[in-house]
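$ run holo --ligand "S-adenosylmethionine" --emit tokens
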Amino acid sequence: MNRGHIGVLPRAPRLEDDSYLDFMETLRNFNTRTLFAKILPLTFDPQGESSAAIRSWKRLMRSQQQQTWQKVLDRYASERGRWEAELDAAEKNRPGRLHYDPAFQVPRYAALDIHLQPGGYVNDTLAGYVFHHGTKVFYQGENDQDELHHQVASFVAPPADGNITRILDLGCSIGQGTTALKQRFPQAEVTGLDVGLPMVRYAHKRAVDLDVDVHFRHGLAEDTQLPSGSFDAILCYILFHEVPERLFPVILREIHRLLRPGGTLTVVDAPNNKNLPAPNRFWLKFDSAYNCEPYSPAFVASDFRGLIEAAGLTVTHVGPTPTFLHLTTAVKTAP
Ligand SMILES: C[S@@+](CC[C@H](N)C(=O)[O-])C[C@H]1O[C@@H](n2cnc3c(N)ncnc32)[C@H](O)[C@@H]1O
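-- output --
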């Protein structure tokens, strides 16, 4: 049966799944807060990594993550045809809003099991369903109603002339930021683009369910195939730390090409800091090595501000946000 939604959050197919995921959310909370506070002093100790306490903490974190994904995937995969039919129906229901080319080839760098999600963003037709429930656990209840995506959308500044008619959400995943942007700028045409076809198919279904009129495209941030100068604002929410370093300048040049003069770029992502404090360094290393985040250390160590300016944009702000992520904004001043 369809168990409906709590606000914008879908219930899992069975009550038992929601109970299991609630347990996993509590366990993650316990690991990241209570247990992490206990191992914190060890993160300052060069020998700490080999201690039983840290090794146990890593095992618990990794197992919690693996079991969360597996539970959701098993449940959805057990009725694969039903959910695929749901995605097909959403495409028919609102044609012209989802754009993809069946011949598109996903680059190998994007086909990893990022965050240990089986099949990652691209290799399982139901990845969007799995991602939605899995990230509900990851965000530990702080994004059940897309609160974080609304916060991120609130950081997007219109160009100085106030005209904002086209917005692009690059690396949109399941479109939570895309729908939040549309709700913030109802007059604008908002497009979400992602390399994961299952992600944009689910994003489209979700937007149809919510009755929010947005576009989704399957494509590459580094080569969007969209017209030059066609966007007033572009958002990249936690995209850059998930792409290989060689693509940072390529994506930034593509963003420069896509923005019209005066157009704005908003990036919300990990802070760039070569001299992270020991606990943050520990987290970064853990996430990279044990949670399949291979590209994030290079992003954190990069001179991202310098790369933005080298792409021809002028940085207007760099600073913290209410979460651990940082906000960088820039504007296209010259053609
Ligand atoms: C951490 S998720 C981003 C989260 C998303 N912005 C949100 O609001 O939840 C990173 C996303 O970037 C996408 N991605 C990675 N490399 C990409 C690329 N080269 N072009 C487009 N999307 C990409 C992934 O498929 C994934 O959905």
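-- notes --
Residues 52-77 form the longest helix (26 residues).
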